[in-house]
Write a structure and sequence with these properties.
about 90 residues; alpha+beta; Arc Repressor Mutant, subunit A; 3-stranded antiparallel sheet; 5 helices; 3 strands; about 60% helix
């Protein structure tokens, strides 16, 4: 594995290494969700949720689209996220 691949994996792991972002990714693995749905799930103010989603989007883990006045998110690569959760094993 080259330095570029190693850097890419480190960036990915850093992006998901937060309980809120892991929760968001697990929820998005079930399907597309809008910001307000995610906000209710993680019980954080909308600006905080938007910051987490922006980081996940910047690192290529989620994609967004506008649905009327709402912004909705889905996984950019569902197989990657499923594989990560499978490797992590069951939650305690």
């Amino acid at each position: 594995m080259g330095a570029t691949a190693t850097t890419g994996w480190a960036k990915l792991l850093k992006a998901i290494a937060h309980p809120t972002r892991l929760t968001i990714l697990r929820e998005l693995a079930k399907g597309t969700r809008c910001v307000n749905d995610i906000r209710e799930l993680v019980d954080l103010p909308q600006p905080n949720v938007s910051q987490h989603l922006a980081l996940l989007k910047k690192d290529g883990l989620v994609i967004s689209r506008k649905q009327g006045a709402r912004r909705c998110y889905s996984l950019a690569d569902a197989r990657l996220i499923s594989g990560i959760f499978a490797a992590l094993g069951p939650r305690s």
